[in-house]
Specification:
CATH topology: Protocatechuate 4,5-dioxygenase, Chain B
Helix content: 25-40%
Distance between the termini: 29 Å
CATH superfamily: LigB-like
Strand order of the largest sheet: 6-2-8-1-10-9
Keywords: Metal-binding, Oxidoreductase, Zinc
Protein name: Extradiol ring-cleavage dioxygenase class III enzyme subunit B domain-containing protein
Pfam families: LigB
Strand content: 15-25%
Organism: Cladophialophora chaetospira
Number of helices: 10
CATH class: Alpha Beta
InterPro entries: Extradiol_dOase_DODA, Xdiol_dOase_suB
Length: about 300
């Protein structure tokens, strides 16, 4: 089977569940494409669940609840029923442990809005939502660690699983303008332009995603954490780790065949940029692959450690 695409979605504020945006429409489009191609399941990492020390966990709650989703109409999410994939969760734990991670099950984890509000937009009818496996981050926020988590999950793409990271391309809550949100439940009004540093990093992210493929993508996504405006764009590292997870799942030499795209974008709260990226694409039946020449030895040496780094 051909590789499924990988998505890095910027989930934004909770208003993204209710507001009509291009990003929300893109999530729906990606969900419709997934159903049309009969995806087997979804493996997702959000930005709001991280484990301490050197551990990582996978959700195995058979009947998870959903956390509160403030600033939106509860009717939009309260009756949407999660579809946890316990069998794949156990398999993911085994795959991670086989590669040196200290992975374990969490049978009590309830779903958080960073994952379920994206899934609701992708699959509005919960009965059609494919089985979902949620993987935590690690709170040390080591970029190589999270790249490798995605790399370990990558073989599932050949079996028809969709891999998704939900975080934020620009997500610094301290620089957001909250007045309209708190008073009127309005996050989309842009009375002033974003700050220059925010715009600078936003462009850097798009350039990295659109101009790099395969192992070069992994290396470039890690390098963005050294960008001079990174800390202005990401006050904490938690919303960037799902981007690295996605890059890890889409950063093998085989992934050089297809481009990565910015599918949609929504600005909120003046300084929060919700960019929606897709790495790769579905290959239709009968479509011929585009074969690339083998990379030079120098390129292999430069990027190989991104794929081989130990946990």
């Amino acid at each position: 089977m051909e590789l499924t695409p990988v998505h890095f979605f910027s989930h934004g504020s909770t208003r993204m569940l209710e507001a009509e945006t291009e990003s929300g429409d893109y999530w729906t489009k990606c969900g419709e494409e997934a159903l049309a191609h009969n995806v087997k399941g979804v493996v997702i990492m959000g930005a709001h669940w991280a484990c301490l020390n050197d551990k990582i966990e996978v959700a195995t709650n058979p009947k998870p609840l959903k956390s509160a989703c403030p600033f939106v109409n509860p009717a939009l999410y309260k009756d949407w029923v999660p579809n946890p994939d316990l069998k794949t969760a156990e398999r993911c734990i085994s795959m991670l442990n086989a590669e040196g991670f200290k992975a374990s099950a969490n049978p009590n984890f309830d779903w958080i809005h960073d994952t379920f509000m994206v899934l609701i937009r992708m699959f509005p009818d919960f009965k059609k939502c494919p089985p979902v496996t949620i993987i935590s981050m690690n709170a040390r926020y080591d970029p190589y660690y999270h790249i490798k988590v995605g790399a370990v999950m990558r073989p599932l793409r050949k079996e028809g699983y969709l891999i998704v990271g939900t975080g934020g391309a620009i997500h610094n809550l301290y620089r957001n303008r909250w007045t309209e949100m708190l008073l009127y439940r309005e996050s989309l009004g842009q009375e002033t332009p974003p700050e220059d540093g925010i715009m600078n990093f936003r462009q850097a992210v798009e350039d990295v995603v659109s101009k790099n493929r395969g192992p070069a993508l992994r290396k470039a996504m890690i390098r963005l954490m050294q960008h001079p405006k990174y800390r202005e764009a990401q006050a904490t590292d938690d919303h960037w780790m799902p981007a690295l997870f996605a890059a890890g799942a889409a950063g093998d030499w085989e992934d050089e065949k297809y481009s990565n795209v910015l599918g949609a974008e929504t600005w909120e709260l003046t300084n929060m940029c919700n960019s929606q990226f897709t790495f790769g694409r579905y290959v239709e039946k009968g479509e011929k692959e585009r074969h690339l020449s083998k990379p030079t030895l120098g390129m292999e040496n430069m990027t190989s450690r991104i794929g081989m780094v130990s946990a």
